[in-house]
């Protein structure tokens, strides 16, 4: 295993924001990342049931149990998802090496299936299905864009393999940017093929491609699609199970959550406790919750994390304790507050207004002038040593504005669920996480011990 410098911790955005914005923000990010992992796995496992049903010539909900006494969004109980997650848990616990070999082979098959879906789907393309290209207008486009972040879940988890990377300063950015470009292209081609096969009103929510191929007369193709989807989702669940456990292990090493979750089994070399806890929580959510609720909650969490990462980047570039002068610190805080305030104002105005423009004439110039002021009047206190985000502060400021804007496109009930989750996290942090992490830091009296805490030598 390659030796990793401390500049590239395996904790991803959790480790990054914990260093830049403090333990509290780091804990909030950790909770949101774990929320993403749990909900993402629950959503995929429920989709697994839907495609399994279509493979056996059934409707997506045929293998779910209807609980009429529960709310509609929680009334379709999914026992198959529980079985799938239990199987994944066993595979992830037994052998990381075996899981990696399975993922490698399954990924090759998955690429072939994706190419088949795109090519076969385009042979049945009907451009008339694009005649009503934006049926819900601009608001509908941005609402869909907000939910689309569900599909981008997991890119941050690439950083969890930093410790196995020979040159993380080069390889991690290449892996992140390269995979996002490829996946975005594939998503666009798949969406184009689906919408050209079927009018948007006829697209099935649970198993869209299988139903679409049957609708255009390629009934035999739905079996290939369903089998490929099952294989692909199994690969996703297995790969995510390994990365989820690693993330939970890294957070447990800080003692923000019980350190027993950081224990690695000596026989299997896998974080047994973390894997079982994560997949058990995933199974509980998957059993009750509909895909619509999961996708929106996932999107809120993803957008929130990306917004904080952009803020963390600005803090890293423009503030260094003992280097940044008091005047520059005050200017930085003022400009950052204006960027955040104008972005929030734009999002609120968008969510509450359908055709007005006066609000944008106020908030957008404030955002532009604030970013320009940050660029012109506040010197950067730190330069990147290995690889740095270009166009600072414009790119992170734009990221803040876009993420907050997309958050304004998500419905109120989803924010209420996210708020409840966040409140529970805050209560837990002040009752347990704050004291446990403080005691750990206090015990680490030397710089070497502090490094060991971060890298997992202290448990």
UniProtKB/TrEMBL annotation:
Membrane spanning residue stretches: 21-44, 76-94, 101-121, 141-162, 174-200, 220-242, 272-294, 300-320, 332-351, 357-374, 386-406, 418-438
Pfam family, one: AA_permease_2
Entry keyword set: Amino-acid transport, Membrane, Transmembrane, Transmembrane helix, Transport
A single MF term (Gene Ontology): L-glutamate transmembrane transporter activity
Location(s) in or outside the cell: Membrane
Topology with respect to the bilayer: Multi-pass membrane protein
Cationic amino acid transporter C-terminal domain mapped to chain residues: 387-437
InterPro entries referenced in this protein's UniProt entry, alphabetically: AA/rel_permease1, CAT_C
GO cellular component, as recorded: plasma membrane
Main location: membrane
Gene3D superfamilies in alphabetical order: Amino acid/polyamine transporter I (1.20.1740.10)
PANTHER family hit by this protein: CATIONIC AMINO ACID TRANSPORTER 1, INNER MEMBRANE TRANSPORTER YGJI-RELATED
Family: Belongs to the amino acid-polyamine-organocation (APC) superfamily. Cationic amino acid transporter (CAT) (TC 2.A.3.3) family.
Protein name: Cationic amino acid transporter C-terminal domain-containing protein
């Amino acid at each position: 295993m390659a030796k990793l410098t401390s500049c590239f911790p395996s904790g991803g955005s959790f480790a990054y924001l914990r260093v830049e914005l403090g333990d509290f923000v780091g804990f909030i990010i950790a909770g949101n990342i774990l929320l993403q992992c749990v909900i993402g796995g629950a959503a995929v496992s429920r989709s697994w049931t839907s495609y399994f049903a279509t493979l056996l010539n059934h409707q997506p909900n045929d293998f779910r149990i209807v609980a009429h006494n529960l709310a509609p969004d929680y009334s379709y109980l999914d026992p198959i998802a529980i079985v799938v997650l239990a199987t994944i848990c066993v595979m992830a616990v037994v052998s990381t090496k075996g899981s990696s070999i399975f993922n490698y082979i399954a990924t090759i098959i998955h690429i072939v299936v994706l190419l088949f879906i795109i090519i076969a789907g385009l042979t049945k393309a009907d451009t008339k299905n694009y005649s009503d290209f934006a049926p819900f207008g601009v608001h509908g486009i941005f609402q869909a864009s907000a939910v689309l972040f569900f599909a981008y879940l997991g890119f941050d988890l690439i950083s969890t393999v930093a410790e196995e990377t020979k040159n993380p300063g080069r390889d991690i950015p290449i892996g992140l940017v390269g995979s996002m470009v490829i996946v975005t292209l594939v998503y666009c081609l798949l969406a184009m093929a689906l919408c050209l096969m079927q009018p948007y009103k006829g697209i099935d929510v649970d198993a869209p491609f299988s139903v679409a191929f049957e609708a255009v007369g390629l009934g035999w193709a739905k079996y290939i699609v369903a089998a490929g989807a099952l294989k692909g989702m199994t690969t996703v669940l297995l790969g995510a199970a390994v990365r989820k456990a690693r993330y939970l292990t890294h957070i447990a090493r800080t003692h923000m959550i019980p350190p027993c979750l950081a224990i690695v089994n000596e026989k299997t070399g896998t974080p047994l406790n973390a894997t079982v806890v994560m997949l058990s929580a995933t199974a509980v959510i998957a059993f009750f919750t509909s895909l619509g609720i999961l996708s929106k909650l996932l999107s809120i969490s993803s957008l929130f994390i990306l917004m904080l990462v952009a803020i963390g980047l600005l803090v890293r570039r423009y503030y260094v304790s003992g280097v940044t002068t008091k005047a520059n610190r005050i200017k930085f805080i003022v400009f950052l507050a204006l960027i955040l305030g104008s972005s929030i104002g734009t999002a609120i105005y968008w969510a509450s207004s359908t055709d007005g423009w006066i609000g944008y004439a106020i908030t957008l110039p404030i955002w532009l002038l604030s970013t320009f002021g940050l660029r012109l009047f506040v010197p950067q206190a730190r330069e990147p040593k290995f690889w740095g985000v270009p166009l600072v502060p414009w790119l992170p400021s734009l990221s803040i504005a876009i993420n907050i804007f997309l958050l304004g496109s998500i419905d109120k009930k989803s924010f209420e669920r996210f708020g409840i989750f966040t409140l529970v996290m805050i209560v837990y942090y002040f009752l347990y996480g704050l004291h446990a992490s403080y005691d750990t830091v206090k015990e680490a009296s030397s710089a070497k011990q502090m490094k060991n805490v971060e890298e997992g030598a202290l448990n």
